[in-house]
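Dig into my protein:

:::
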Amino acid sequence: MRLRSLLYVPASSERFIAKAHERGADAIILDLEDSVADGEKQAARAGLAQSVPMAGRSGAKTFVRINAEPGLQKADAEAACRAGTFGLFIAKARSPEQVGVLAEHLAPIERELGREPLVFVALLEDAGAVLDARPIAACQRVLGLVAGGEDIATSMGAEPLPEVLRLPKLLVHFAAKAEGKLSFGTLTTVADYQQRDALEAAAREASHHGFDGATCIHPSAVPIMNAAFSPSEEKVAWARAVLDAAAGATADGRGAFLVGDRMVDAPIIERARRILQKID
């Protein structure tokens, strides 16, 4: 599953929802949280029955970002489930217990509907959640993790500068990868999306670190993320050459061999396989 770009769209905006499928994003996140005013949250939730299928018309995966407040969270999750969304973005996820409670709430609804279980992407948005990232990633339904840079910085009384966000974002990334889950984001804040050169550089850096994709708060970021988190033609050619050489080496009983002037062994072969998986 390729999720290079995940575009946030306010679930209260019919205009943005109607155009979401045209943006080229691998996933659309219908947001019931920060981008929706308090007085519009219930109407946005009720509208999911129409907005979820509308946003996914191009084949993009649909997610719904649900509110963290207990009085809203379960109702948001149930409405998203009934609307047919692929998964949930869980705002301000803080513990595996919280994730488990939500999963237990949804299970009978999913059985009633005869649908596949929703997957979860956990948004870790404070210092405590960063330190508990691996147990959250280990939860069965969790597909991936995101570190919310602005909120993490605020929780620490810090500024969302690259040097401040780098460590907590990498810790969340390591936790996701340690549990075999997806990791979304860059090592900077997404708020400066208008600085295209900086955004491209941040996306490339994140890709080099092994992030799988990133969320986008504006459609202009989608092609940047799609490009940065896709392997280049040169990488694809290299990966195919490695796997072709590996097949020959295996037949000859060799565990290590040269491709060009570079020694290749098991971890490099696996890296080549993963590169080719990204183009399927």
User: Anything to note?
Assistant: The mean pLDDT is 93. The chain has 13 helices and ten strands. The beta strands are 5-10, 27-31, 61-66, 87-90, 119-124, 142-147, 182-184, 214-216, 257-259, 262-264.
